[in-house]
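User: I'm new to structure prediction. If I give you an amino acid sequence, what do you actually give back? Let's try with this one:
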Amino acid sequence: MLEIKNLSVYYGSIRALRDVSLTVREGELLALIGANGAGKSTILRTISGLLVPKTGTITYEDESLGGLPPHRIVSMGILHVPEGRQVFSHLSVAENLMLGSYRRSDAKGIEEDRETVFSLFPVLKERLKQAAGTLSGGEQQMMAIARALMGKPRLLLLDEPSLGLSPLFTDTIFEVIAGLKQRGITVVLVEQNAYRALEIADRVYVLETGTVKLSGTSAEMLANDEVKHAYLGE
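Assistant: Good question. You get back a string of structure tokens that encode the predicted 3D arrangement of the chain. For your 234 residues, that looks like this:
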């Protein structure tokens, strides 16, 4: 579905990614794990057009994403839930969800998807008129994911969805993420909680200082001594 080849990305003079290559298969849940600064979020930001690569290519369903602005990439079905949620804090929950579907014109489909996100996150229906900035951190994360789902993604990029959440909210978020595959959504997940990511992922790439260190199935990574020592506390 998506292929990255020899991707290098810089922040000014600092190289964040060095010759990274990876693939995302349609219908899978792919996890990217690694320490802070390993380049995980940079990969997502480059896929979604927020960063421009120095070298390398990103191909989505045989079409190059190189040079495309973010709104074009969104219209191709790639939606990004950024780290820190980035809600429109002064707007209501309903308005935030509406902004998620701003490139759609199928009113019936939009209403159906609203009901779907309410079934996934019932608390959002109770908070529809509430300003997004007054929601708890867990509720804001639910809304950020729901807002992306309103854009009808085929490929969903999730950056640190459990960051700062209570165990209860974390359980809810991971349960929903695991279920997205059943809805035909391909997911790329960046997550500091490596164990929870490996629990639900099909395949995994381990990044270290801007390069791919290891890759394999989730089961292979859970059994890998290096991964267990570095990321699972074993």
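You can read the tokens as a compact description of the fold. Here is one thing that stands out. DSSP finds ten helices and ten strands in the chain.
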